[in-house]
Specification:
The chain is of the alpha+beta class. It has a single domain, classed as 3-Layer(aba) Sandwich (Aminopeptidase). It has four helices and five strands, in the order E-H-H-E-E-E-H-E-H. It has helices at 13-26, 33-45, 95-109, 124-132; strands spanning 4-7, 50-56, 59-71, 76-86, 115-116. The protein has a five-stranded mixed beta sheet. Strand 4, helix 3 and strand 5 (115-116) form a beta-alpha-beta unit. The longest helix is centred in the last third of the chain and has 15 residues, at 95-109.
Length: 152
């Protein structure tokens, strides 16, 4: 079955939100369909992210979400590919690869200098896909984060 990619449309938001909820569960977050729909809808309607979807036989099989950002060192705009998820039963059908290639085309068309992403250290299948498409693992910088929920 052929896999196609395209920019998400407003009518896709419920299906994308369902995939986003599964994505969050993959990263050990509790299922929350309402939160997922609200978050995805807000990003879409405020034009705060770019949502790409992979579709086969009229069904959404996966999505990726790109956030516009900047690289101060390069003094250039970039995309952060923060979310990428493919339905478990649609994996190994090319949806992830198609979404990454669509994201790359989107980045080029928007004049982005590069794309950045992070993934779980244990997500070896995703890492193999990224590297097969020319993504390079950062061996120089560590990534840190600080929760604003944490006590000071």
């Amino acid at each position: 079955m052929p896999m196609t990619t395209r920019l998400a449309q407003a009518a896709d938001l419920p299906a994308v939100a369902a995939l986003f909820d599964l994505y969050r569960q993959f990263y050990q977050q509790p299922a929350d369909a309402a939160l997922a729909l609200d978050f995805i809808s807000q990003r879409f309607h405020k034009a705060e992210s770019v949502l790409l979807v992979a579709e086969s036989e009229g069904q959404l099989q996966g999505f990726c979400q790109l956030y516009p950002s900047f690289c101060s060192v390069e003094a250039q705009p970039i995309y952060v590919l923060y979310d990428l998820f493919v339905q478990p039963d649609a994996r190994q059908m090319g949806a992830g690869r198609a979404l990454l290639l669509a994201a790359e085309a989107q980045a080029r068309s928007q004049g982005k200098a590069r794309m950045d992403l992070t993934t779980a250290k244990t997500n070896l299948h995703a890492q193999a896909l990224y590297e097969s498409l020319g993504w390079v693992r950062d061996e120089v910088f560590f990534a840190y984060n600080r929760s604003m929920k944490a006590a000071i």
